[in-house]
Design a protein that fits this description.
Blueprint lengths: L7 H13 L1 H10 L10
Length: about 40
């Protein structure tokens, strides 16, 4: 997070989501070919 803040519960949800989609996120970062991922649950 660059600036601002989120409630702790929301932060945990984002971290969990990023861990689930880490491979896809890294691939999109490296290739700059972006696509939608499933939303937070």
């Amino acid at each position: 997070m660059m600036e601002g803040d989120l409630p702790l519960r929301a932060q945990k949800m984002v971290v969990e989501w990023a861990q689930l989609y880490q491979r896809e996120l890294l691939e999109m970062w490296n290739t700059q070919q972006f696509h939608k991922l499933p939303p937070l649950r």
